[in-house]
Amino acid sequence: MAVQVLATADGRAKTALSRAHAAAWFAARAAGAPLPIGVATPPAQPARPAKPDLLDPRDVPRRRPGSPTGRIALLHAVAHIELNAVDLHWDIIARFADQPMPAGFYDDWVKAADEESKHFNLICDVLESLGSHYGAMPAHAGMWRAAFDTAEDLHGRLAVVPMVLEARGLDVTPGMIDIFRAAGVTEAVDALTVIYGEEVAHVAYGSKWFNWLCGRDGLDPKETFHRLVRRYFHGSLKPPFNTEKRAEAGLPPDFYWPLADGAATPVA
Ligand SMILES: [Fe+2]
Ligand SMILES: [Fe+2]
Predict the structure, then answer these.
(1) Domain-located, residue 20
(2) How far does the centroid of ligand 2 lie from the alpha carbon of residue 248, in Å?
(3) Which of 105, 201, 218, 223 has the fewest CB atoms nearer than 10 Å to its CB?
(4) Which domain does 18 fall in, by range?
(5) What is the greatest pairwise CA distance in the chain?
(6) Distance, CA of 113 to CA of 121 (rounded, Å)
(7) 68-91 pLDDT per residue, tens
(8) Is residue 266 part of a domain?
């Protein structure tokens, strides 16, 4: 089921399949007949639609969010991130299926994949209501880099994807909501508010399973996190951090501050 989602190119088709598979997974769990985990080989890269064109981040035109076009570009970038997140969550399910994990691990990532699918559709609906659509603008290539680099390291995947990349979403989303509120684009405010509320849990799933693996393997979680982020994440973490939501998601300051820009910053 995960590989079917990864192999579907069109965004709306990918998210529809993702939501149907998530519903089937949870229906089977509720009926007391959980689906077997199985083993499958996910593609090295997920299938993607012909549009948007994927450009090197340096070549993606920068637009100011003060203009309608700039705000559409911002939403377009969010849609691209959400679609990538759908694939990331199904990929962690399929990629590491040879390692026995508790059933709750799969529950969490199926739920996260279902929510990312909803997020993609919500943002696409807003783009369409503003006369645009996903695919109308170029998007960042290289979004799959973190998945590719951690394809053989489950600890590394959890450290970089939910605990760094998705945690970054908690830092920047309130500012985005402010931009759309100031511009009076209430559909965007509503969609981003749903996303903001649900993303805390995705970061929390990451820290939960990262800590679980460290406990199983006798590793110090904080030291291991620092080592893996330095190994797999290219660049430093950018403050200001949303310390409150990060704490709610089980991410304490001494995990991320030592990895921040200007790492001499005192650990709060
Ligand atoms: Fe999301
Ligand atoms: Fe997420």
Answers:
(1) yes
(2) 15
(3) 218
(4) 2-35+75-126+146-259
(5) 53
(6) 12
(7) 999 999 999 999 999 999 999 999
(8) no
Distance 166 CA to ligand 1 centre (A): 8
In a domain, 186, yes or no: yes
pLDDT at 77: 96
pLDDT tens by residue, 95-109: 999 998 999 999 999
Surrounding ion ligand 1 within 5 Å at CB are 82, 116, 119
Ligand whose nearest atom lies closest to the CA of 78: 1
- Number of structural domains (the chain) is 1
Among residues 195, 182, 59, which one has the least CA distance to residue 124? Answer: 195
- For residue 224, report the distance from its CA to the centre of ligand 2, in Å: 22
CA of 266 to the centre of ligand 1 (A): 31
Separation of alpha carbons 6 and 190, rounded Å: 28
